[in-house]
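pipeline: protein-struct stage 2 | run 1193 | NADP-dependent oxidoreductase domain-containing protein
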Amino acid sequence: MGGVGDRVSETEAHDVVRSAFAGGIRYFDTAPLYGHGLSEKRLGRALSSLPRDDFVLSSKVGRLLVSQDEGERYEGMRDTEPFAIRYDYSYDAVRRSVETSLERLGLDRIDVLLCHDIDVWTHGDEQPGIFDVAINGALPALQDLREQGVVRAIGLGVNEWEVCVRVLDTIDVDCFLLAGRFTLLEQTPLDEMLPRCIADDVSVIIGGPYNSGLLANTERRRATYDYKPAPDHLWEKAQRIREVCVSHGVDMRAAALQYPLRHPAVAAVIPGMWSKEEVQTNLGLMGVDIPPALWNELDGAGLVRGWIDGEESI
C-alpha cells in the first residue's frame, strides 16, 4: 500500500483497508520502510474514522526516515516520498521513530511495536554488530515503552527464525512477525522456534504466506520468491504441491493461507493485498474447507510437514 507508490491510488488504498475491516479483518501492519512513510500515512487515514478499540495496529522501529542526503532510498520501493532510510537500533532512535510514526499515522497509539530486520537476511556480515546494538538499545527501549503503557506488545519483525530464538534467550517479548519462513514451502521453524514460542507464551504472526508470490501465481514468469524470480527447484516443488491440492479440489492459495494457522503458536497470517478484490479473494480462501486428507498426502509425499491439531505427524 506504500511500497507500490502511485500504482495504487489514495482511493484504492482506502478501499483496501475499509474492505478488509468490513470483512472482519482487525489487525493491520505497517512500517516506516514501506513506501518511505507512505504506508503509515495511507493506513492511518483509512483507519482514522473507525473506532480505535476495534482494530490492532503494529508498526516497526530500526529504520529512521531522514532526508535523502542523510540516508539511502530503499530500491524495492516505488514511492516518490522525499525521504531515505537510515538504520538506527539505538535506544533514543526508538523513541524518535515512534513519535514520527504516530505523526504519519495520525492516530493516538500503536498497539504492537516490532524491532525491524535485525537478521542476517537483511544485514549479512554486519548482523552480529547490528544485533548487539539492538539487544542493548532498541529492545530495552521497547520494553520500557511497554511498561509505560505506550504500546501493548513488543517483538521482532524479521525474515529469519534464528534471530527470534536468540531474542527469546535474552528479552521478554510478546510476539514475532516472521515473513516467508513458515509456509507450504518452508517449515524449519517447526524444529526450534515454534516449540519455544509455545513454551514461552509468545505469539507468532506469519507474513508472506505466498512466499512473495510463488504460491499464488500459476504463470512461471510472474512467480517470485523473496521478491526475486523464483528458482527452478522451488517452482517445481510448488507445482507438485499444487497438483496435490487440485486433486482434493482445493485452491493452493487457500492451503497456503491456512497451513500456518494450524499451528497453536500462530495467531495471524497477513498476506499483502493491493485491491479490494484481492481482499475479497483472500477472505474467500480463508473460508475454504480443506480436508485432512490433503494435509496427510502432502506430508506423506514429503512436500509439506504434517501438522494436525498442533502435533507434527510422524
